[in-house]
Specification:
Layout lengths: L9 E10 L2 E11 L4 E5 L6 H8 L7 E6 L2 E2 L5 H7 L1 E3 L12 H8 L18 H20 L15 H13 L5 E5 L7 H16 L3 E5 L3 H7 L2 E6 L2 E6 L1 H5 L2 H8 L2
Parallel strand pairs: 3-8, 3-9, 6-7, 7-8
Antiparallel strand pairs: 1-2, 1-4, 4-5, 9-10
The structure holds adenosine-5'-triphosphate (ATP).
């Protein structure tokens, strides 16, 4: 079987979501191929974030289905979807401000022994728990090193800049050992130097095997990162294609510029 004949890692079919009279997402389809960086673009209000929320079941679809890694996930709770290997970040990074940067990462690692109350007290010193925590601390330190946040390891997450919070959120996603990361506007509100670094991190993580779906308004970022781009407008699929095809498509220009 060739790589191109593999089923998509993520597919959405006929997703619909209305808020009162607003049809935010109407019959939308999407496919994300394994190992790729896929862009999701569209003018303000096109339904991109609503689609992300539906993919993760952060909100329930009115209709439609989502299949991830061969399994239907649209009825699973978000935390379960994360355990299956799909994790997201937010447009405005959501960190636990009053915890340290390190603790923000440690909390994200799934299947920790301490998640069960029965494991937390008399067994607390069990060597396996101690070695688990050591392993997670080492992994967290590696991630912070890779995103250039080592010097902030013990700082409150709330003291980070907007761009650093985005990096912390991405680091937290990596702690779950994901197959697919959904990034909601990783470059929004971030200075140009940090945008370049964020793009380099995404490319490196992708080369290490992680697939990405990225919402972004910064077209330079989309064009430099993505293998394929899906375009939404007014809650509907407009087209999908390579970055070059999307950039030169008359319908896309019209949707953005109203020409
Ligand atoms: P942007 O690029 O500005 O972030 P977007 O493409 O992500 O926009 P959405 O945020 O998904 O678009 O919004 C799509 C439409 O749905 C908009 O008209 C928005 O006002 C509406 N909408 C989204 N969430 C809600 C909600 N919880 N209640 C009511 N309307 C909503």
């Amino acid at each position: 079987m060739t790589a191109t004949s593999l089923p998509p890692l993520l597919s959405a079919n006929g997703l619909c979501k209305s808020f009162g009279g607003i049809n935010a997402v109407q019959n939308v389809n999407l496919e994300v191929e394994q190992g790729k960086i896929v862009g999701l673009i569209g003018p303000n209000g096109a339904g991109k974030t609503t689609l992300f929320n539906l993919l993760c079941n952060f909100i329930s679809p009115d209709r439609g289905s989502v299949v991830f890694d061969g399994r239907p996930i649209h009825a699973l709770p978000c935390h379960n979807i994360c355990l299956q290997g799909m994790v997201r970040t937010f447009q405005v990074a959501r960190v636990l401000s009053k915890l340290s940067v390190l603790d923000n990462l440690l909390l994200a690692a799934p299947h920790q022994t301490g998640e069960k109350l029965s494991n937390t007290w008399i067994f607390a010193q069990r060597p396996s728990i101690v070695s688990e925590e050591k392993r997670l601390r080492t992994r967290a330190a590696e991630i912070l090193e890779s995103v250039g946040l080592s010097h902030m390891i013990h700082a409150y997450a709330g003291s980070l800049s907007g761009g650093q919070r985005k990096l912390l959120e991405m680091g937290r996603a990596l702690m779950t050992d994901p197959k697919l990361i959904l990034l909601d506007e990783p470059a929004a509100g971030v200075n140009p130097t940090l945008i370049k670094q964020i793009c380099e991190h995404i490319k490196r993580w992708n080369q290490q095997g992680i697939t990405f779906l990225v919402i972004e308004h910064n077209m330079e970022v989309i064009m430099s990162l993505c293998d394929r781009v899906w375009v939404l407008a007014e809650g509907q699929n407009l087209m999908n294609g390579t970055p070059a095809e999307v950039q030169s498509n008359a319908k896309v220009l019209e949707a953005y510029l109203g020409q």
